[in-house]
Amino acid sequence: MDFGQAYSPDNLRFLMEGLGMTLRLAFVAIILSFIVGCLLGVIRYAKMPVASKLIGLLVETIRNLPLLLLIFFARFGLPELGIKLSPFWAAIVALSVFEAAMISEIVRSGLKSVEKGTIEAARASGLTYIQTLRHIVLPIGLRRMVPPIVSQFISLLKDTSLAVIVSLAELTHNANIVMGQDIAIVLPTLMLVAAIYFTVNYVLSIIARRLESRPT
Amino acid sequence: MIDITVLTDHWDSYMIGLRNTLFASLMALAGSFVLGTIIAVFRISPIAALQVFGTAYVELFRNIPLLLVVYMFFLGLPAIGIALDGFVSGTLGLMVYTSAFIAEAIRAGIMAVPQGQTEAARSSGLTYMGTMRYVVLPQAVKIVVPPITNQFLNLVKNSSILGVVAGLDLMYYGDLVNAETYNTVDTYVFVALFYLIMTLPLAYASRLLERRLARSG
């Protein structure tokens, strides 16, 4: 094991560039999947005719497919259908679609967890359906959704490593290239990369836990 | 339109891939259940060293990507002289990774049984093992079954990681069919269908169990 060679300035810089790409990928995908996921979740909760059923079917299909397949499909399948995406955007599209499906489920069950009595009381006190949704169901439901959504974001950050298959220069991909230099630096590099992922995610999970333990 | 010959002409490839995916999933499933149970027991044991080890294990593997865990077996072990092929290292990685999530599910289930019950059982004269066996575990199992079913569903989906390390699974064979047919869309639509055949029943079972257990209290 050669730690000196593994952690040479050049290698470290290259890995940090990879981390930058990983964070960029995760950030864009988190924003997109959150917006789309919330929208889909609310539509399904509100039981809008046809739309709810269709979205339900779509969400169910996507949730039960491997993300790897979606990334691959976005990069190599979509061009056959006339949609050409760079590796970065192929990864973004696949990650966002996949995580949005997951988040929509979290949002839907979060909203559903708001007690019937609370909703009935709001309605009986004269609030309209939309007002009830906006002032009662969403605030209560959203607070309950925070911990699972943060967990989902941790998953997303880990999942960005799957962009390896479209040769996007994120952390795992760059680590792979560094490890190719010499067998003596494989283990030190793996350890360092594991430590980087761990640190980023652990900080996120501590935030999630703190939010979870906060009284709601 | 979907070209069915992609499936019919390469039926054997799809079937070998499907069989290997199932095989890897079942092995990883059995392994991660055993390993996850052991880690969960470590985490709730009164011995501090075991607790620390259990917690470190769970936190480590829950916070790094599965691909990296697979790389540890696929690239890391050869670096110290142990050569493993893609299938074995993929399956081992899958097992180690999933066991952390299963350990958490089991621990959460056991913790969900109210402390008062344990104390009541102990004070009524049951031993620690007796309390676990007759009071805590029967209740914990009910709580734990739906999340564990869910983890198995994730495991089947995650087994596609074998494709990245030439693990001869469904994803990998999809790649081969794709290289022969130049028809990515149809090739992967069929790959997707085979994954859904495996995952949808698990998703359904998990939801059914959750609902049934919620009703029985």
What does this structure look like?
- Chain B: This is Amino acid ABC transporter permease.
- Chain B: Belongs to the binding-protein-dependent transport system permease family.
- Chain B: Keywords: Cell membrane, Membrane, Transmembrane, Transmembrane helix, Transport.
- Chain B: It is a multi-pass membrane protein.
- The complex is a heterodimer of chains A (216) and B (217).
- Chain A is built from 9 helices and no strands.
- Chain A has 216 residues and is mainly α.
- Chain A has one domain: Orthogonal Bundle (MetI-like fold).
- The model of chain A has no long low-confidence stretch (mean pLDDT 91).
- By secondary structure, chain B is mostly helical.
- Chain B has a single domain, classed as MetI-like fold, CATH 1.10.3720.
- The longest helix of chain B has 34 residues.
- The mean pLDDT of chain B is 92.
Task: Using brief descriptors, characterize the structure shown.
heterodimer, A: mainly alpha, B: 217 residues, mainly alpha, 0% strand, cell membrane (chain B)
The total domain count of chain A is 1
The portion of residues forming beta strands of chain A comes to under 5%
Rounded radius of gyration of chain B (Å): 21 Å
Helical content of chain A (DSSP H or I, runs of 4+): over 70%
Runs of chain B in which pLDDT lies below 50 for 5 or more consecutive residues are none
Along the chain, the helix and strand elements of chain A come as HHHHHHHHH
Query: Alpha-carbon distance between the termini of chain A?
Result: 50 Å
| Most strands sheet of chain B | none
- Distance between the amino and carboxyl termini of chain B: 49 Å
CATH class of chain B: Mainly Alpha
Low-confidence stretches of chain A: none
Supply the CATH superfamily name of chain A: MetI-like
Q: Tell me what the CATH architecture of chain B is.
A: Orthogonal Bundle
The tally of beta strands of chain B, per DSSP, is 0
Oligomer classification: heterodimer
Number of helices of chain B: 9
CATH topology of chain B: MetI-like fold
Please state the structural category of chain A.
Answer: mainly alpha
Structural class of chain B: mainly alpha
